[in-house]
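Dear support,

We are seeing what looks like truncated structure output for some complexes. This example has two components. We would appreciate it if you could run it in full and send us the complete token output so we can diff it against ours.
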Amino acid sequence: MGEKMNQMIGIMSRALDASSLRQKSISNNIANVNTPNFKSTKVSFEEMLQKEVKSQFIGHRSNAKHVLIGETDQIPSPKLEQGNAVFQNSGNGVDLDYEMTKLSENTIWYQSLAYGLNEEFNLLKTAIRAR
Amino acid sequence: MSIFQSLSISGSALTANRLKLDVVSSNLANANTTRGQLVNGEWVPYRRKMVEVTANQSTSFTNLLQRELSGVQVNKIVEDKSPFQAVYDPSNPDSNEQGYVMMPNVDVTKEMVDLMAATRSYEANVTAFNAGKSMLVKALEIGR
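Here is the complete output from our reference environment:
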């Protein structure tokens, strides 16, 4: 139970990291909306997390000291990716409407993650105080 | 990577867009200035100015390593090299022997479009700034 909760907190804080990096990436894209030859960046995290969670392949271990293969407790870190689309004659690759939608989406996503993390801590608090 | 980076990224864009607005204002104000600058004792009309922006490239090693995002910067203000417009107006003190006055190469329509673009871009960046700010405030509430 405690392990699971710890992992939950770990995943959530990593997701918060991803969301905060995404905010920076979106800000940067919006800031460079008129910069010639600028290519937009995006953050990938959820796909990697999903892959990690769904990974079916688990290496057989005959000794507890063997390195884990497949199933790991590691939570992936968010990564920046460079796009290559071109949207303007100047060679700029920023779709402003897309960035603005992503911006508000990301803000709400961050706030709900913070809320969820808070609830998780509240559960722990309840358990500690036993009331 | 600093936590306030998203604010400074948006801030850099606000600076750049404000400078763009300043340059557009200067162009509009001088749309009819026939004596822009004195070159070899002769008056030359005002030349339209433009802003050259690039993505902020920090060259420090850690930044390159982390592919740091750091906003936008104005490289320089460049002059538009397109030719001046010749307007027939013999009564003008700046007219030449044929009665033509060289007017600045400022296109008011173009300037208005640039003005709108800069304003909208400024607004978009203010929105991004506020979103980043609300996220930071929310982060303070974790564990409270």
